[in-house]
């Protein structure tokens, strides 16, 4: 059973937790809930901290507008309704062609992810200041946890801002009259602050399952704080598009930070130590099977000490994860009372062919079927998401044990898994020239992906063939591709490795080759057969080399070429409209510029 947080309304908080945060209005709050009262009372303070989570559930936050469009059109996933990116607001967000006047993301306060994230930061700032000044966290265990929780959630909102916009204002104190308007800060200032914050937070937070508050994946714990810290350190030390100057609207370059603290070995070693601490002491571990992760997610299992470390919590009537990423449902089912839901965000068609056939993750991360009239099918079901395409099979209404009755499915958004901890540890160990340890962490993830009979070739021999640092990095980069499709991690991974532009362009070239069955895809068949056996859809003719007719009874040949229908001209033409590395970030949208009193400008050549 999921926790159903009753988020406090902003109106209540304006008179409670935000009393001192609104001093700049020069009016005294009529509420008896002053900051001192709230943050000296553990129960009231917890109510205020819980409200920080509420901004995840806003329409333009992780609920709907931000989540489906950030991170699309990589070498792993894409937005499956690619129209003309010059005019289509949604497509432009995914095709490296976002425009400032985008009304889908920048028209009014209720359609604004940037402002929503900063509202979450302001709520966190008020809690952090209030607890430090009134809560005695040094001697009160509850207040210490709430301080650590607030610091970690603030870091998460900044992580999302940095991924979407690059440099943004640094706000680490409640808003005052003097700070209502702020210009952008160099992102390295923010990196250093939140990396330090997470180190502090980890000292306050218990491990998963050690207290009632950390007994679920829906509230912050020590493992999440340390894992997020490592993720941010890798991000800060890697490549990214940076303005020549924050005052320069046009000039930019892809480079690493010039701050030796962020790019130095010492900080990387700290991240490695943090990850080793999580691996050894958190009580978390890999699930026995890859499929069980997604069964648990879909069935609202939120207990701690599993593979899932932290998830954005959604109640049943909030969160549109499956509406966008789920297996497309043309008709209703026992688990969905709506029609034509899912399939808006999909695996890139080439992803299926990146997997070894024996890899158990393939048939969960990249499935060719959809749902229609009580069964899975590969028939062409119409336009848009109904067109043939691969879907994320791990995100499927049919894995649920309840019925979704609206756009909002209430499935939690996975943020950090133990597999990510292991692969980050592998990457950092490799960077620190500890090849044997790097292999050991990767081996754990890869072992889970293959049945015991397949491990001699796909795990042992695979790892033995890796003999140097560069080969190991390439293996880690590939493993992250195979492990995390549809989890919105790939774009930032590619950016920090300086591979975004290269891999996106190669993916389009590979899709064309796959459609034409040339080059590396010459051994992909054109005839696909399906049958349903023991209630399960079986497919023959998608795997390389399956040119003969399948043996056995009940097979039906598709009346169209699946791959050619998936890879249409608009997919190839609209996958990216500009050099991806020149558009790693969205622009600040017009609403945000208009409300900044001239303090904010766009960089990266946006007009």
Provide structural commentary.
The structure is a single chain. The protein has 607 residues and is mainly alpha-helical. The protein has 24 helices and 11 strands. It has helices at residues 10-14, 35-39, 42-53, 59-63, 89-94, 103-106, 113-134, 141-165, 187-204, 222-237, 260-263, 265-281, 290-298, 321-325, 362-365, 418-431, 435-449, 455-464, 469-483, 490-496, 500-516, 562-566, 569-574, 590-594; strands at 77-79, 239-243, 252-256, 308-312, 345-347, 370-372, 375-377, 413-417, 529-533, 536-540, 556-557. A hairpin with a 2-residue loop joins strand 6 (370-372) and strand 7 (375-377). Helix 3 (42-53) runs parallel beside helix 8 and helix 16 runs antiparallel to helix 17 (435-449). The protein is globular. Residues 3-31 have low confidence and may be disordered.
Distance between the termini: 48 Å
How much of the sequence lies in strands comes to: 5-15%
Number of contiguous helices: 24
Biggest sheet architecture: 3 strands, antiparallel
Point out poorly predicted stretches: 3-31
- The share of residues in helices is 40-55%
Instruction: Report mean pLDDT, rounded to a whole number.
Output: 93
Radius of gyration: 24 Å
Q: Judging from the principal axes of the Cα atoms, what is the shape?
A: globular
User: Strands across the major sheet, in which order?
Assistant: 10-9-11
Helix/sheet category: mainly alpha
Q: How many individual β-strands?
A: 11
